[in-house]
Specification:
alpha+beta, YojJ-like (1, 2 domains, 7-stranded mixed β-sheet, 7 strands
Length: 253
């Protein structure tokens, strides 16, 4: 078999693998957003379109061709925010691992938990986002730069009701509090119970856009929750918060 024959044989296989890799990466970046379900539908339609062309169904082929021409423009308009956020995440992904050492993570979590426990006792709320792989720079820029070592006293001070920064959230990046008073996107999900307030809706909104681990202290119920990838775990004690956060930090997705 000549090199030309080998190239002809492997070319379509390589093209298919590259296509699926691109589709897979796009779906990862849009995972958790409103556009994710639409992307899944588009993939199914593309498969159906391929089958239609393969079997030479002329009428269906004509209809699908016209449909795609109109739908691409509509999708670009409707899902402009999600597309922009997905592209931003694509350009900001960390190339190298920036995970904390075990002792550093223990230190950070112990101070966070001590702070949120004290805040709950004082009937104060807190919203703390721990950056994982997806950068939170866009949200950091909208807050007040702190750039300080994680400290229970500092966290409590930030979320004291009279503090100017207590209404927003804080972002922890590489084991440091980098910003406070950050505004996170509110979830548009209607599944969240009405008993949860703005902090929980902001935590869910951020978790739908990034892989951040968000810890929420509720001033109404005086309990602690963890939000990750659109899922809320509520009523956690100290040990559960630390164990679950560590588990999520180690998880690939």
């Amino acid at each position: 078999m000549s090199l030309l024959d080998i190239f002809i044989f492997w070319k379509p296989i390589v093209e298919i693998l590259l296509l699926w890799f691109v589709v897979y990466q796009v779906m990862i970046y849009f995972e958790g957003t409103r556009a994710f379900q639409v992307l899944r539908g588009i993939v199914i339609l593309l498969i159906a379109f391929f089958i239609i062309q393969r079997f030479d169904f002329e009428i269906l082929d004509w209809l699908f061709t016209k449909f795609f021409g109109i739908s691409v423009i509509a999708l670009l308009i409707i899902f402009q925010p999600e597309i922009r956020q997905g592209l931003a995440r694509l350009g900001q992904r960390h190339m190298f691992s920036t995970s904390l050492r075990e002792e550093e993570l223990d230190y950070v979590l112990n101070h966070i938990v001590r702070a949120v426990e004290n805040l709950c006792k004082e009937k104060s709320g807190a919203l703390i986002a721990i950056e994982k792989k997806d950068p939170l720079n866009a949200y950091i820029e909208g807050g007040e730069i702190v750039d300080a070592k994680v400290s229970a006293d500092l966290i409590e001070t930030i979320f004291t009701p009279k503090s100017l920064l207590h209404d927003g959230g804080i972002v922890i990046q590489h084991g440091r509090i980098v910003a406070a008073g950050c505004l996170f996107p509110l979830t548009e999900s209607h599944e969240l119970s009405r008993v949860f307030g703005t902090r929980h809706r902001a935590a869910l909104g951020l978790s739908e856009e990034t892989d951040a681990i968000i810890i929420v202290a509720s001033e109404e119920r005086q309990d602690i929750s963890i939000v990750y990838r659109g899922k809320l775990s509520k009523g956690l004690n100290r040990e559960e918060v630390i164990a679950k956060t560590k588990e999520l930090m180690r998880a690939e997705n």
